[in-house]
Amino acid sequence: MTVYMVERNLKGISMEDLAGAQRAAIATAADMSANGERIEYIRSTFAPEDGRCMCLFESKDIEQVRRLNDKAGLPYSQVVEALDLTP
Prior knowledge:
This protein is an alpha+beta fold.
């Protein structure tokens, strides 16, 4: 499994809508996993000043991460392979 970073521009989003987007990502990952696709939401980081949001997923491939975000109705500017450097 590889870690992928989803980059989003959510400038102006309310905290309520941001929480809803996170719930949608988590629920969609769970649904996809329940249907045999191994994919996991790891975490997100949001910078409210400029609206940048970076979400990490663990998945078998980049297309699966794109499908998750499309199914969840979550906007994104790009998806790239990433290294999760959590100590």
